[in-house]
Design brief:
Bound molecules: adenine
Number of domains: 2
CATH topology of the largest domain: Rossmann fold
Structural class: alpha/beta
Number of helices: 6
Largest sheet: 6 strands, mixed
Number of strands: 10
Strand content: 25-35%
CATH architecture of the largest domain: 3-Layer(aba) Sandwich
């Protein structure tokens, strides 16, 4: 197996965000939420609702190099309009894995003169160099997993296919490749929905019953 990947459901997203909310209401009264784009957008929006915080902003952490490569360095795309001065801030992301994005964002916000800064993620991998103040689930690095969040299915599965597919494969073969390379079991129906999108977007090519990735680089 190359590494483990798993599909995360919308119900899990809701449960994790409710669990973060529960911890926060007992210990912190943020006045403004800053969601890290793109992974923190949906959790940030849910927490904005669950905590009655309408002041929801985003900042984008950008990675140099290949998307989601573990050692890429991150930088902040600055947004000087976020009104954090003298206010209690909650920074939200989906996961702390290396911890680089959250460290960068939290250092950046602290320089803008907030009253207090706390951080929250749904998932925290225990090797992360940054530990969020609030998180719903801790994952052991021994069980390191690529979490396929419901808002990133197309991008992530295409990336997995790009790693696993060597030439032309039938749908059955693709399902087997995903299971053996990533311990990822996906239904025939889901695979067909994904492939249909990839095909319309010019990312895969179908020849009779076989599929091939169109690689641009
Ligand atoms: N972003 C950074 N690490 C991740 C992981 N393990 N799963 C999903 N998204 C991530």
């Amino acid at each position: 197996m190359e590494f483990k990947a798993r599909l995360v459901s919308w119900n899990e997203i809701v449960d994790w965000c409710l669990s973060i909310r529960k911890e926060i209401v007992n210990s912190y009264s943020p006045e403004i939420i800053i969601a890290l784009s793109r992974g923190g957008l949906v959790p940030g929006r849910l927490l904005s609702d669950y905590l009655w915080i309408k002041d929801l902003y985003t900042i984008k952490t950008e990675h140099w190099g290949i998307t989601a490569s573990k050692d890429a360095t991150a930088k902040i795309r600055e947004d000087p309009t976020i009104p954090v001065k003298n206010r209690s801030v909650l920074i939200v992301d989906d996961i702390t894995d290396t911890g680089k994005s959250m460290k960068l964002a939290s250092d950046f916000i602290k320089k803008l003169g907030p009253e207090e800064v706390k951080t929250a993620t749904m998932l925290h991998i225990d090797h992360s160099s940054f530990k969020p103040d609030y998180y719903a689930t801790e994952v052991s690095n021994k069980e390191w997993t690529w979490f396929i969040f419901p808002w990133n299915i197309y991008e992530d599965v295409l990336r997995l296919l790009d790693k696993a597919m060597t030439g032309e494969h039938t749908e059955e073969e693709i399902i087997t490749l995903l299971a053996s390379n990533f311990d990822l079991n996906i239904s025939r129906q889901l695979l067909q929905d994904l492939l249909s999108n990839f095909r319309q977007s010019g990312k895969v090519f179908r020849n009779n019953q076989k599929w091939r990735i169109i690689r641009t680089s």
